[in-house]
Fold this sequence. Notes:
The complex is a heterodimer. By secondary structure, chain A is an alpha+beta fold. Chain A folds into five domains: 3-185, P-loop containing nucleotide triphosphate hydrolases (Rossmann fold), CATH 3.40.50.300; 198-282, Translation factors (Elongation Factor Tu (Ef-tu), domain 3, Beta Barrel), CATH 2.40.30.10; 301-372, 2-Layer Sandwich (Alpha-Beta Plaits), CATH 3.30.70.870; 378-485, Alpha-Beta Plaits (2-Layer Sandwich), CATH 3.30.70; 488-597, Alpha-Beta Plaits, CATH 3.30.70.2570. Chain A is built from 16 helices and 33 strands. In chain A, the strands form seven sheets. Chain A has an eight-stranded antiparallel β-sheet. In chain A, strands 21, 22, 23, 24, 25 and 26 form a six-stranded antiparallel β-sheet that branches. Chain B is α/β, with parallel strands linked by helices. Chain B is built from 16 helices and 17 strands. A nine-stranded mixed β-sheet of chain B has the order 9-10-8-7-6-5-4-1-11, sandwiched between helices. A three-stranded antiparallel β-sheet of chain B has the order 12-13-14, with no helix packed on it. A three-stranded antiparallel β-sheet of chain B has the order 15-17-16. In chain B, α6 (168-180) runs parallel beside α8 (213-229) and α14 packs antiparallel against α16. Chain B starts with a strand and ends with a helix. The model of chain B has no long low-confidence stretch (mean pLDDT 95). Chain B: It is found in: Cytoplasm. Chain B: Keywords: 4Fe-4S, Chaperone, Cytoplasm, Heme, Iron, Iron-sulfur, Metal-binding, S-adenosyl-L-methionine. Chain B: Belongs to the anaerobic coproporphyrinogen-III oxidase family. HemW subfamily.
Amino acid sequence: MDIRERRSRVRNFSIIAHIDHGKSTLADRLIQSTGLITEREMQEQVLDNMDLERERGITIKLQTTRLIYKAKDGKEYILNLIDTPGHVDFNYEVSRSLAACEGAILVVDAAQGVEAQTLANVYLALEQNLEILPVINKIDLPSARPEEVKKEVEDVIGLDCSDAPMISAKEGLNIEDVLEDIVKNVPAPKGDNSDPLRALVFDSYYDTYKGVIADVRVMDGHIRKGTEIEMMATGKKFEVTEVGIFSPGMVPIDQLNAGDVGYVSASIKNVKDARVGDTITEAKNKADEALPGYKKVTPMVYCGIYPAEGEDYNNVRDALEKLQVNDAALAFEAETSVALGFGFRCGFLGLLHLEIIQERLEREFDLNIVTTAPSVIYKVAKTNGEFFEIQNPTNMPDPQEIEYMEEPIVEASIMTPTDYVGPVMELCQGRRAEFKNMEYLEETRVVMHYDIPLNEVIYDFFDALKSKTKGYASFDYELKGYKRSELVKLDILINKELVDAFSIIAHEDKAYERGRMITEKLKDVIPRHMFAVPIQASIGNKVIARETIRALRKDVLSKCYGGDISRKKKLLEKQKEGKKRMRQVGSVEVPQDAFLAVLKFEDK
Amino acid sequence: MTNGALYIHIPFCIRKCNYCDFTSFNYNEEKVEEYITLLLKEIDMYAEKVKEYKFKTLFFGGGTPSLIDEKYIYKIMNRLEQKFNLSLDETTIESNPKTLTRGKLLAYKDMGINRISMGVQSLDDSILKDIGRSHGIKDFLDTYELIKNVGFSNINTDIMFNLPNQSIDNMITTLKGIISLDVPHISFYSLKIEENTNFFEKYKSGNLNVSDEDTEREMYHKGIELLEENDIYQYEISNFSKKGFECEHNMYYWKLKPYLGLGLSSHSNMFNKRWGNTSNYNNYKDNILNNKFPILDTEIIDKKTKMSEYIILGLRLNEGISIEGFKKRFNVDIYEAFNGSIDYSLKYGLIDINREKIYLTKKGLDLSNVVFKEFIE
């Protein structure tokens, strides 16, 4: 087949959806119904995924697959399904995946209707000028209301739903309609094989055998084994060792042409050298301009990660290094805490990213770690004219040296049934959020727009929102910018000694409340000692909250006769063992879980 | 020959008290008969093993040993006399006030029992009922009169404090009542909520009204004060007596001297070992019938363990431990072996050192576990 004819048969598309609306199930069905793999292989493929993804029902790592579909017009089409991560933390990755496509299938749950991430994803797709094909899923559910949901999609998003496939991905119902829809309505890629090479990297990861693999969409030109390539953002050059397609495993082929989706391996050692969003060009025949939209993803949220047992320091470092090979967004550097010893300051895209790394360290690497309170990046202007960023509260200068500070603000949209508007407003007010506006999506549902300081979002905002709305509200945000703010460093002193691992940066108006909550929590989790232990929260030298753990009054086994000795001795030994596992802060023993306990704030 | 103490467990009760986690069964004549037969056999089995020991004290504990017919106690005593070297200075039987009769007491006296220990717990009928005791105040007063009448002078009463719904005054009233009866020995101890008891379930569900730690300690301190004002001196964390009425048997435990326990769930400490019998009746029975020792687990006590046990048990006694005695027994200087532990305990005022002795201070009595934890590995 001639290259042009072949290109006219290619369809590059993504599936976008709110979490749990059935994105992965539909992807699985599409793969199956094009006969690519059997039910059994399907199962195995699912099992290969990270446990964490399946448990949380979200996609963290992308998967790209080429489907061959024989359409009703009798022709065979090449459908490249480019998966997208399903969480706001990974918005940038989603946008790059979408940039590799011409169309997107928008999956909407026939019972739930349009949700916050449905909208957020639609906006991302629109930014890339994609053809958006609505699909109404889960029509088999008793609570399905497909006609209403269709109308909702038309009213809220403005997409014509008259021909939208009505499917049940779970039951395999009307999947063919989706495939036909893709063939008919997703435009074939443009581009010319003879132009200088421009290939968009939309994912990259480390493969033990092949080194770093870059998943690419070739926009112009072509690429093959032996091509000397240059990464346009970094200027680094590599020689291509293999190109191929996903079918669904990696299958080497001779050449990727303009319009194709595939992979490139070029013995690149670190994913940092093949960052998502970068453009690959040919070193000898460079394109004039890189593809638009490259940005180096930078962490938004930081926290300290420390080994629970000091001797695990090297193991934690090795584990972080291994994770970083595959995760260009993860940042870390060594740091020392007076309370926790040697550990690492780690940067993440968001809270979910943080939690995923934390869980992977614990599960995949079997490490016992202590995590400190998460922080965002603040900007500090000093009276001497210096201007810099900090993310570790320990680095905050003395208040008298600070001219002003800025904190990151996010634009948040919260979609909720109207019944919960009151509780959501209450929650947001408590989080220093600035109300922007509220739109009615339909009579019973609204989307509320707020500007919220990110530092309020990272303190359990999502959990609080879920509990206030019985799980009905959905939430999405993106960074808006920085804003001046009256921020203070809140320190915690245990027995008059500052424990750096507990320090946080908080808004002046919230510091008192936070200080009180932390001291109360610590009072509960730190055991009684031989002496009274004061726990203070302070700003500078000013104590704003104080609790006292009273001295131990009684620790005695009143009876001990012949038969009791072994049993009681074991009890004492066990208690002594527990004591050894605690962190020593001056003369006070602080249990490991104290560091976790202060991360969680209950909303009253 | 080495001196030793002997303990016999009689696991039968009228009913189980709400706080009790000891091994015991409801009374059943056939089962008692069978149990005694097994016990007699266990005595036979040990005869050869302990022939180098001379037993100075004997203690019938339970359960409620006074519940079973005195003929069984006689059989046991008789068998012990035949098989073991007995040179008893003190023979105690634990009892419930409701189970003692003149006839029984006379029989005990005849067979050489010279100390009666009674579970009294409180002199408040509603509290007694709440904690599941089968006796009332009157039962105790009548029985106590009887015991004295029959001619026993060495008597112990167990008194508990920090009982559910008990005030400090209520506890004081009980102690005053006991003092007025001129009881020479009192075990005065705090209720401890043990797992697998009625109280534990109630406590977990928040339905047990026991005092907070501060009130509990106040009861203890006031109790000690009141007893000592009346010449009943504390000699161990929970034991008080008039001079010369200290329980010799229990001293074997606290001074880490040899003792042998026979019967269900009893414990022994001899030959550098400590072992415990099974508390499962059928296991006990099967083992004995098959000529096997009914032992559940054994711990070898090496020198280091022995040193630390010597200290943590010895410190329970008000007289404390003798620095010279320690050196004599272990051939090690206590300061060398436990330098850090002693410093720590001294620093917080938990122990004191006076001439030749190390002992718990008043504060140390409340925080004895803190000290003990310092002395165990």
